[in-house]
Amino acid sequence: MAEIKEVSKKEAGTPQGAERTRPQKVYTPDVDILERKDDIVVTADLPGVDEKNLDITLEKNMLTIYGRVEADSLRMHRLAYSEYGVGDYQRTFTLSDEVDKDRIQATMKNGVLRLVLPKAEGAKTRKILVSAEAEA
């Protein structure tokens, strides 16, 4: 029998000394990180966010994802019951020098963000050729 697991959103903390400018809750999006030979792929779930309301910034080695959710559709209705909190999303990653920061690509489809972080040439795995040494 399959195990049933309840999943809930995690609210993101506010950095010390900072205040939010929107009254909206801010959640930490769940991500999957996959390392491949030439790149690292980050997939983040951002339900309710479209590409116009998504900001991805890179400052020094800090990559920040911030997605705004517009709750206008809820204003036209009376909510009878809700198990899903509406709010914005924010997550920050520290990138190493292994990532070629000039070639990062981002795509968004159906509330799922896909970031491709190409590896820098020096960080790519390479095969070392082994040769046999002649006996003396």
Describe it for me?
The chain has one helix and nine strands; from the N terminus they run E-E-E-E-E-E-H-E-E-E. It has 136 residues and is mainly beta. It has a domain at 24-71 and 82-120: Immunoglobulin-like. The longest helix is centred in the middle third of the chain and has 4 residues, at 72-75. It is elongated, with a radius of gyration of 21 Å. The model has no long low-confidence stretch (mean pLDDT 82).
Write a brief caption for the model.
The chain has 136 residues and is mainly beta. It has one helix spanning 72-75; strands at 10-11, 25-28, 31-35, 39-45, 54-59, 62-67, 87-94, 105-109, 112-118. The strands form two sheets. A five-stranded mixed beta sheet has the order 1-2-7-6-5, with no helix packed on it.
Can you give the mean pLDDT? 82
Backbone CA Rg = 21 Å
What's the helix-strand series?
A: EEEEEEHEEE
Helix content: under 10%
Which structural class best describes the helix and strand composition?
Answer: mainly beta
* Strand percent estimate: 35-45%
Shape: elongated
* CATH hierarchy, class of the domain at 24-71 and 82-120: Mainly Beta
- Quickly count the helices: 1
Which stretches of 5+ consecutive residues score pLDDT under 50? none
Termini Cα gap: 66 Å
Oligomer: single chain
